[in-house]
Design goal:
Blueprint: H1 6-23, H2 33-43, H3 53-62, H4 70-96, H5 102-111, H6 114-119, H7 126-143, H8 146-157, H9 167-171, H10 179-185, H11 188-191, H12 198-204, H13 217-225, H14 227-233, H15 239-255, H16 263-273, H17 277-290, H18 305-319, H19 328-346, H20 353-364, E1 370-373, H21 376-387, E2 396-399, H22 406-415, H23 424-427, H24 434-448, E3 454-457, E4 471-473, H25 488-493, H26 503-522, H27 526-539, H28 544-552, H29 560-572
Parallel strand pairs: 1-2, 1-3, 3-4
Length: about 575
C-alpha cells in the first residue's frame, strides 16, 4: 500500500473492529444456541453435537477474566475472535498485494457484513472457527508453516465439524511443494483433535447440560461425526441444494450494502483473468464452503461466513478500480456507508429480548412446575437462566424429544429424578415417524406425571394435545388475567421493537402467535385467529404452518387466498 505500513494497518483494523463489536455487543444471553453454550461453559457441560469441545475449554478459561459479568465476557470473546479474524485476512491479502488498496477494502467490507457482525456480538462458535481457519490460512500461504496449519485445522474441527470440508485446501501444494510434502504434515491434524477428550471426561461428573452419551464409544462417535445432522440431510431431494444456493445469493442484498454488489461481477471476472495461488485458493474456498447444507432457516447467517468472506474479497477487488489514487477520504466514506447500513440490525447493545422472554415466563409459572418446550431454541434460554443466573431452579425444563432419546432421558433422570419417564418399548411400539414419537411420548409422560404442574411451551393447543396437562403457555384463555390480549405477551417483552432479531428468532417468536391462533381456532373464534395469523406473518412471512392453519378454516373464513397472496408477495420481495 505504498507509504502505508501493512503491519501497522493490520493492528489498526483489529483495534477498530474490536471497538465496533464491543460497542454493539449483546449485554447478555441472546436467542438460539447462546443460552446453551453459556450454560455449558458455566457448568463445564456438553452442548449439542458436535459438542464444540475446544470452544468450551477456551471459553471456560476466558470466563475467569475480571470483565463485567459472565455472559458479557463470553460475548466479548466472539468480538475478540471477530477482530482477530480480520487481522489475519488483511495480513494474507496485503502479503500478495502489498501496493494495492484492495486488501483494506475487502477487509472493511467483510468486517461490516451483516452476518459476520451479528456473530461477533453474541455467544456463538463461528467467529472462533473463522479466526482459527484464517490463522491457519496465514500460516499456510504466507509463512509456509504447513505443519502448524494442519494442527490449527484440527482445532477448528474441534470447534465445528464443518471445518473438515476445507481439507483439500491444505493438501494442495500452493507454495510449490509436492503433494507428498503436504501428506507429511497430515499427522499434525490429529494433534488438533486432542480437545475431543473433553467430551468423555466432562461426562464423568454428569453436568446438567449434557446431550447424548459421549462416554460410550457409540455416543462419542455420534458426536465426532455429527451423524444426527447427516441423517436429516439423507432424505433431502437434490434440487433443494440448488434452491439453497439461490437463497444464499438472494440474501446478499441484506448481507452487503446493495450498491457494493455492482462490483461483485467486476471483481470476480478480474479474479479469474489470472489464477495465481491466492486466486485459486480463494476460488476453491468458495466452492468448498458452498457444499455445506443445512435445513435451518438461520443457517444462512452463520454457516456461510467463509462464502461471504470470498464475496467480500471479490467486491473489494472490483471496487479497487475506483480507488486507484489510494486517498483516504473515499475510504472513510466507504467505511461510513458499510457501518451505517447494517448498524440498526447488528447493534445488539440493548438486546435483552431472550432474557426478558425467559424471565417473564418463569415468573408466570408456579412452584416446582415442569415445562416441556416445543422447540430446541427456547429451552436454551431457560438453561441459561437456571444454570448461569440461578433463577427458578425449582422449575424443570425438558425438551419435546427428550423422552425417547437415550442421552436426553439420562439428563432428565439426573436433574429431576422424581419425574416418571415412559418406557422406551411403549414409545416405540407401532409407528415410528418422528411426529408420532413426539406426541406418543408426550402423552405418556403427561399421564405418568399427572400429579405435577406440567406446562407446554410452543405446542399446538387444539386437537391431539393430551388432556392431563395444566396449561399451554401463550394459548390465551378467555378467563386469562395475565395477558390482556392474544399478542399482549409479545408487546410486553417488546418483540415488535427489536429490529435485529434474525430469521430463526423471528420464527420462534412468531410460533407464539401461531399457538395462540391454534387455541382460538379450537374455540371457533375465527376472527381472533385471523388477526393472530396475520400478525404471525408480519413477524415471519415464511411460516408454512400458518398457511396450513388458514387452509383448515377456509370454509369458515374467506381470507385464505388473501394470505396466499401475501405469502407470494413476501417471496417476491
Amino acid at each position: 500500500m505504498g507509504k502505508y505500513n501493512p503491519q501497522k494497518l493490520s493492528w489498526g483494523i483489529f483495534t477498530f473492529f474490536l471497538l465496533l463489536y464491543s460497542l454493539t455487543l449483546a449485554p447478555g444471553v441472546t436467542a438460539r444456541d447462546s443460552g446453551e453454550y453459556q450454560a455449558a461453559i458455566k457448568t463445564a457441560g456438553i452442548p449439542h453435537p458436535s459438542g464444540a469441545p475446544f470452544y468450551i475449554i477456551v471459553c471456560k478459561i476466558f470466563s475467569f477474566l475480571p470483565l463485567k459479568n459472565f455472559s458479557w465476557r463470553i460475548n466479548f470473546f466472539s468480538a475478540l475472535c471477530g477482530a482477530f479474524s480480520l487481522f489475519f485476512l488483511f495480513r494474507i491479502l496485503s502479503h500478495f498485494y502489498p501496493l494495492s488498496i484492495f486488501p483494506l477494502l475487502s477487509t472493511l467490507i467483510y468486517g461490516c457484513s451483516l452476518s459476520y457482525w451479528l456473530n461477533s456480538t453474541r455467544t456463538e462458535v463461528y467467529t472462533f472457527k473463522i479466526m482459527l481457519l484464517l490463522s491457519s490460512f496465514y500460516l499456510l500461504l504466507v509463512r509456509g508453516k504447513r505443519n502448524f496449519a494442519f494442527l490449527i485445522l484440527g482445532l477448528a474441527f474441534s470447534v465445528h465439524t464443518s471445518s473438515i470440508i476445507l481439507l483439500p485446501l491444505y493438501l494442495y501444494p500452493f507454495r510449490k511443494e509436492s503433494i507428498k510434502d503436504s501428506l507429511k504434515s497430515f499427522p499434525y491434524l490429529f494433534l488438533g483433535l486432542l480437545p475431543w477428550i473433553y467430551l468423555p471426561l466432562a461426562s464423568i461428573h454428569k453436568p446438567p447440560i449434557f446431550w447424548g452419551t459421549p462416554h460410550t464409544l457409540k455416543g462419542f462417535w455420534e458426536y465426532f461425526t455429527a451423524s444426527r445432522y447427516r441423517q436429516e440431510l439423507s432424505h433431502i431431494p437434490p434440487y433443494i441444494f440448488f434452491l439453497n444456493l439461490k437463497k444464499i445469493f438472494l440474501h446478499l442484498r441484506e448481507e452487503f450494502f446493495p450498491f457494493l454488489l455492482i462490483f461483485l461481477p467486476i471483481g470476480f471476472v478480474r479474479w479469474l483473468k489470472k489464477l495465481p495461488p491466492l486466486h485459486l485458493f480463494f476460488l476453491l474456498l468458495f466452492i468448498l464452503d458452498l457444499t455445506f447444507f443445512s435445513l435451518l432457516p438461520s443457517s444462512i447467517t452463520h454457516m456461510y461466513l467463509l462464502t461471504y468472506l470470498v464475496i467480500s474479497v471479490w467486491i473489494g477487488f472490483g471496487l479497487e478500480l475506483m480507488f486507484r489514487k489510494k486517498e483516504f477520504l473515499p475510504i472513510f466514506l466507504l467505511l461510513f456507508v458499510c457501518v451505517s447500513y447494517p448498524l440498526r440490525i447488528a447493534n445488539r447493545s440493548k438486546d435483552r429480548l431472550a432474557y426478558t422472554y425467559g424471565k417473564t415466563i418463569l415468573e408466570l409459572l408456579p412452584h416446582q412446575a415442569v415445562m416441556v418446550h416445543g422447540l430446541h431454541d427456547t429451552i436454551f434460554i431457560f438453561w441459561y437462566l437456571e444454570w448461569v443466573e440461578n433463577l427458578r431452579r425449582d422449575v424443570i425444563s425438558v425438551n419435546y424429544n427428550s423422552f425417547y432419546q437415550p442421552g436426553l432421558r439420562e439428563q432428565i433422570a439426573r436433574i429431576a429424578p422424581h419425574l416418571k419417564l415412559p418406557p422406551l418399548e411403549e414409545i416405540f411400539r407401532g409407528e415410528k415417524a418422528p411426529l408420532t414419537l413426539i406426541w406418543r411420548s408426550l402423552e405418556k409422560f403427561i399421564y405418568l406425571n399427572r400429579d405435577k404442574e406440567i406446562y407446554l411451551e410452543l405446542f399446538p393447543s387444539g386437537a391431539n394435545i393430551p388432556v392431563h396437562y395444566k396449561g399451554v403457555l401463550f394459548a390465551v384463555k378467555e378467563d386469562s388475567s395475565t395477558l390482556s390480549s392474544p399478542n399482549a405477551f409479545l408487546h410486553q417483552i417488546g418483540v415488535f421493537t427489536y429490529p435485529y432479531i434474525d430469521g430463526e428468532e423471528r420464527l420462534i417468536l412468531s410460533q407464539i402467535l401461531y399457538e395462540n391462533a391454534n387455541y382460538w381456532v379450537f374455540k371457533n373464534k375465527f376472527s381472533i385467529a385471523k388477526q393472530l395469523l396475520l400478525d404471525t406473518l408480519k413477524l415471519y412471512p415464511f411460516h408454512h404452518s400458518v398457511y396450513l392453519l388458514l387452509g383448515s378454516i377456509m370454509e369458515k373464513e374467506k381470507f385464505y387466498f388473501t394470505a396466499i397472496e401475501y405469502y407470494r408477495k413476501a417471496w417476491l420481495a
